[in-house]
TrEMBL record, chain A:
SUPFAM superfamilies: Periplasmic binding protein-like II (SSF53850). Keywords: Signal. The keyword Secreted does not apply. This is Carbohydrate ABC transporter substrate-binding protein (CUT1 family). It comes from the Bacteria. It holds the Pfam family SBP_bac_1. Residues 1-25 form the signal peptide.
Automatic annotation (TrEMBL), chain B:
It is found in: Cell membrane. It holds the Pfam family BPD_transp_1. Keywords: Cell membrane, Membrane, Transmembrane, Transmembrane helix, Transport. PANTHER family: ABC TRANSPORTER PERMEASE PROTEIN MG189-RELATED-RELATED, SN-GLYCEROL-3-PHOSPHATE TRANSPORT SYSTEM PERMEASE PROTEIN UGPE. The keyword Mitochondrion does not apply. The keyword S-adenosyl-L-methionine does not apply. GO terms for cellular component: plasma membrane. One of its GO terms (biological process) is transmembrane transport. SUPFAM superfamilies: MetI-like. Gene3D superfamilies: MetI-like (1.10.3720.10). This is Raffinose/stachyose/melibiose transport system permease protein. Belongs to the binding-protein-dependent transport system permease family. It is a multi-pass membrane protein.
UniProtKB/TrEMBL annotation, chain C:
This is Carbohydrate ABC transporter membrane protein 1 (CUT1 family). Residues 73-286 form the ABC transmembrane type-1 domain. SUPFAM superfamilies: MetI-like. Keywords: Cell membrane, Membrane, Transmembrane, Transmembrane helix, Transport.
Length: 462, 286, 295
């Protein structure tokens, strides 16, 4: 019963708020200007400086690493507090680390982390503060955010975290390949039939229509194919049986992927290739389409720079040949109904809250990191939960970022991904280990979905 | 005359075989160093070309050095691996001596336990270890030295098993006569161990030391799990930070790997000298 | 006589204490937790247990029904044979050859060690590019020799080969170093005596070198077969999650997959137990076949 409530809650269609900051990640001007650009007027010098442990996913190749580190530096200078930055790349080992910290009571004071099922465990255990609790004492906390879009916890539908930047998933296209095949860049009215016809043309020309490694990262295709067979309102319903509405949509989605595979629209080695290999095909004008997330905008751009750290070395001509558009629509959904949302936010741990010396400092820190100006800087072309989005200075963005904003401006609805509601170990029959068996015909889509549902039922029974 | 020709022919064949294998082991290092001077895109599309002209770039190194203190990371790695290597050799040496020379009831059980210890996957033991160290308060602190200790301890334990397996195998081959002679002169077991066994086993100790050093130097999983803040990072944890999952930056990775590997090779070449010296000086043969 | 020196058993425990204390705290205790966990229901690394499995032995039943586990065991057994022949075998030959030459021996000793120095992440990348479908090194060579079609080296028919070759290659140097250390301990006088007796090179190897190297070879074999059971990083980087289509699972990669990707910790613990039990059994078998000699 509880599960139902949650999915109904999550399926509330989010209105798109387009925002873009005055400076994007890694732009030369940010580096030159150093930390002065941050508005630290809201911060006060601490009388008794404290040391805060902060764990975030702003690490490795995340587009906001530099933004985060500069913002922290400005905070430290303004307040005299010390931040121990314990950030890591959000991979399996990192998630295990966060989990282990909570288990042993050595969690960080502030956490920028996933607000979906990944946070369930510590939300259930009451180890992080809900926004309501914090507001009892600090009524202004996160008041610049729209409560309905902050990314409520799947556990009880309450807000625990304050989001900054969101994500979206869409169809990237290589315009050089399309032009050679005489195909225009698809727009908001792109249909599945047109897509199939285009793939055929592209294939006949000798290209791979779709760059995808189904054996390692089938996630995007899985999600959109299923989204194509239901509606934004029903997308977040997890099936109870293969025959119910959601179950049919999942089977139909998997059949669509199998159909593409049978027609030879994926690269020949799609089952044995790694993700990087197929993206390389797309980069090298050997494949036309790539379904991927908003983080790929940054990835493609740095790939076109001779110095990945220095945006001024961008080969604009090379970047210009990539565009981003809507995933082709079938039946129930419009192409402009896009998958995306706000998957991460700032949590405050109960330990830090109950520590009288730290309480005010952590609240001030999160307020600072989620101010309007800060969110604008971090979010760029993705969604945010701000009530009022600041104005945009478009001159500072590269062509792909501008195309992303253009696409985002036409979005009619945002829907979160349903795979986040399926526990990892229950997904395997349909994901990296299962997808190859499905498309090559070893397992029928019905059986694969059934196996997943069985695993979930088994899990729920425990 | 005839015989001599025969020898030089077979020697020639030997050199051909040895050189062929050497080629396969040198080439990868060469390849990684080459690619560290290329832009990340060229590495996938053009990975076997020599970086000259347009292909040549120093940006990977620039980036590697700009990231949070690579020198501090070297220091942390050397402290960790050095202490692990010394502790492993000492403890494993003592245990191996006891397991080889003494006869006692539990001997077989203990040997089996040692073998089993070699099989425990890190993923299976890391969480209990973390919980244990958290209760001692040595993980997740801002203290540099405590966090280094928190990785040194499990790494010592993790390397002991294989060290004992190698050392017992070697010690079994040592003639007991020298120990008997020392015993006749009134030496106790501790003096026998340090004055007879250790010098005799030197080459094997050196081997074990090199491997323990290397494996803790290259260990990624434990170190990226326990070392949290930039100033605590060891060189592999830093590599892990730099090369993230989304759209792996191969160029930066090649540069970092070069920065990691080159010091180790230099250290190894020096140690190699020492081993050979130790062996020719050791002079007791079986 | 030997028995006299070591008759007093008291020092024994002092020698054993530090090593076994470390192993007890950091290996045996965590592993006992692992055995306990294999009967629990745990759905994420470092998550709390949700109670006993029902029935409590269900993971052990699953073990026998799991197709992927069967593939993993079969592949691991193949890997063991490959490591014995390909790693220890090649290492013995190389060590004997290097022992037979004077000029350049030091050079070979150094360079044969290189593959072990490079981290598996870098080697994985290297081999991925060597075997890359779209114009990797091997396919470029094949083209040079007139091949018209690209070969997908990671396809089902070649996958095992493509996975095992790099693993084999990487560890030859490890056994080489151990064997060379053993070889250097063989007295030059023994060889001299034999050549006076008119023994050929081959006879010297057969009757002097190999018997004296017996214990060291035995050590290498134990390390090789147990190593095959837990080999993980290189195969994982090249063939994530047993791809293609679950053909390349090894016990090590399957355990990692269950731990880190699917988060089925209790089942992963069960696989870890299988790995340890198999490891102890095969090393006992190796020890029985090549009975170690004591003096």
């Amino acid at each position: 019963m509880k599960k139902k409530v949650v999915s109904a809650l999550l399926s509330t269609v989010m209105a798109a708020t387009m925002i873009a900051g005055s400076a994007s990640a890694g732009m030369g001007t940010v580096e030159a200007a150093g930390t002065e650009e941050f508005d630290t007027s809201m911060l006060t010098k601490a009388e008794n400086p404290v040391e805060l442990n902060v764990t975030t996913t702003f690490a490795g190749e995340d587009g906001n690493v530099k933004n985060f580190q500069d913002a922290v530096k400005a905070y430290e200078e303004a307040t005299g507090n010390t931040i121990n930055d314990m950030s890591g790349t959000a991979n399996e080992a990192f998630k295990a680390r966060v989990s282990a910290d909570f288990q042993t009571g050595s969690e960080s004071d502030v956490l920028f982390y996933f607000n979906g099922v990944d946070s369930n465990e510590f939300v259930e255990a009451g180890k992080v503060m809900s926004i309501d609790e914090i507001r009892e004492k600090y009524p202004e906390y996160a008041s610049n955010m729209d409560d309905g879009r902050m990314g409520a916890s799947p556990v009880d539908g309450k807000n625990y975290s304050v989001p900054v930047n969101g994500y979206w998933e869409a169809l990237f296209v290589n315009t050089t390949v399309l032009a050679d095949c005489g195909i225009d860049v698809p727009g908001p009215d792109y249909t599945w039939e047109q897509f199939l016809a285009d793939c055929e043309t592209i294939k006949e020309k000798g290209y791979s229509p779709i760059a995808a490694a189904l054996g390692s990262v089938p996630h995007y295709w899985w999600e959109y194919s299923i989204f194509n067979n239901d509606t934004p309102e029903t997308h977040l319903n997890v099936p109870e049986t293969v025959d119910d509405e959601a179950g049919k949509a999942w089977v139909a989605g998997l059949n669509d992927i199998k159909d593409l595979y049978d027609k030879g629209y994926f690269p020949e080695n799609t089952l044995s290739a790694l993700d990087e290999e197929t993206i390389q095909l797309f980069m090298e004008d050997k494949a036309a389409f790539l379904v991927d997330g908003s983080w790929r905008v940054n990835g493609l751009a740095t790939n076109c720079q001779s110095d990945p750290e220095d945006p001024s070395t961008l080969d604009t001509e090379r970047l210009d040949k990539f565009a981003v558009t809507y995933f082709p629509a079938k039946d129930g959904r419009k192409a402009t109904d896009v998958l995306g949302g706000l998957s991460e936010g700032y949590f405050i741990s109960r330990n830090a809250w109950e520590d009288e010396e730290k309480q005010a400092a952590v609240v001030e820190f999160v307020n600072y990191m989620t101010s309007d100006a800060m969110v604008a800087r971090f979010a760029q072309h993705t969604a945010s939960a701000l009530k009022a989005a600041p104005d945009v200075d478009k001159s500072q963005f590269n062509s792909l970022q501008l195309k992303s904003m253009e696409m985002m401006a036409g979005v009619t609805s945002f829907t979160a991904v349903v795979q986040d509601l399926v526990p990892q170990d229950c997904r395997t029959p349909m994901f990296d280990t299962g997808m190859p068996a499905i498309v090559s015909g070893d397992v029928t889509p019905e059986d694969a979905v059934q196996q997943s549902l069985d695993l979930m039922a088994e899990k729920a029974a425990q | 005359m005839k015989k001599k020709k025969h020898i030089s022919l077979s020697t020639g064949v030997i050199y051909v075989i040895l050189s062929a294998w050497a080629l396969t082991t040198i080439y990868p290092i060469f390849w990684i160093i080459l690619n560290s001077f290329k832009n990340r895109n060229e590495i996938v599309s053009n990975s076997f070309a020599i970086p000259t002209g347009d292909l040549f770039t120093l940006s990977n190194y620039k980036q590697a050095f700009e990231r949070i203190g690579i020198l501090g990371a070297y220091r942390n790695s050397i402290v960790i691996s050095g202490i692990v290597a010394v502790a492993v050799v000492l403890f494993a040496g003592m245990a191996s001596f006891a397991l080889v020379r003494y006869h006692f009831k539990l001997k077989n059980v203990m040997m089996t336990a040692v073998l089993a210890g070699m099989m425990f996957p890190v993923f299976a033991t890391i969480i209990p270890v973390f919980a244990m160290e958290a209760s001692w308060g040595i993980v997740n602190t801002s203290s540099l030295w405590l966090s280094l200790v928190s990785v040194i301890l499990p790494l010592i334990a993790g390397n002991l098993s294989f060290a004992i397996v190698i050392l017992t195998g070697y010690m079994k081959g040592l003639p007991i006569e020298l120990e008997e002679a020392a015993f006749m002169e009134g030496c106790g077991p501790f003096r026998i161990f340090f004055q007879v066994i250790v010098p005799l086993t030197k080459p094997s100790f050196a081997t074990v030391m090199i491997f323990s050093f290397l494996w803790s130097y290259n260990d990624l999983f434990t170190q990226s799990f326990f070392l949290r803040t930039p100033k605590q990072y060891s060189i592999t944890a830093l590599l892990n930070m730099i090369t993230a999952q989304q759209g792996t930056n191969y160029g930066l990775m090649a540069a970092t790997v070069t920065l990691i590997v080159v010091p180790v090779i230099i250290v190894y070449i020096f140690l190699q000298k020492y081993i050979i010296k130790g062996m020719t000086a050791g002079a007791v043969k079986g | 006589m030997g028995a006299n020196i070591y008759k007093n058993k008291k020092p024994l425990w002092i020698f054993l204490f530090p090593a076994f204390l470390f192993m007890a705290v950091y290996l045996y205790y965590p592993f006992l937790m692992n055995i306990y966990n294999s009967f629990q229901s745990i759905t994420g690394l470092a998550h709390a247990s949700k109670g006993l499995n029902s029935p409590w032995y269900s993971n052990y039943v699953k073990l026998f029904q799991d197709k992927a586990m069967r593939t993993a065991i079969v592949n691991t057994l193949i890997m063991m044979v490959v490591t014995i022949v390909g790693q220890v075998g090649v290492a013995i030959i190389l060590a004997l050859l290097v022992d037979n030459i004077k000029r350049g021996a030091k050079f070979f000793r150094t360079v044969y060690f290189f593959p072990i120095v490079i981290s598996a992440t870098a080697l994985g990348l290297l081999f991925n590019l060597i075997f890359l479908y779209n114009k990797g090194m091997v396919n470029q060579f094949a083209e040079l020799f007139g091949a018209t079609k690209l070969i997908d080296w990671k396809d089902k028919s070649y996958a095992l080969f493509t996975m095992m070759l790099p693993v084999m290659w990487q560890y030859v140097g490890f056994y080489f170093v151990i064997l060379i250390t053993g070889l250097n301990n063989i007295s030059e006088e023994l060889y001299e005596a034999s050549s006076i007796d008119g023994a050929s090179k081959f006879q010297r190897v057969r009757y002097i070198t190999l018997p004296l190297l017996h214990n060291v070879i035995c050590t290498c074999l134990v390390l090789a077969v147990t190593g095959a059971l837990k080999v993980f990083d290189l195969p994982w980087i090249m063939f994530r999650s047993g791809m293609p289509n679950g053909a390349t699972w090894l016990t090590g990669t399957y355990m990692y997959h269950q731990t880190m990707i699917t988060g089925d910790i209790d089942y992963a613990s069960t696989i870890a137990i299988v790995i340890v039990i198999l490891g102890v059994i095969v090393s006992k078998i190796v020890n029985t076949i090549f009975k170690e000699k004591d003096y």
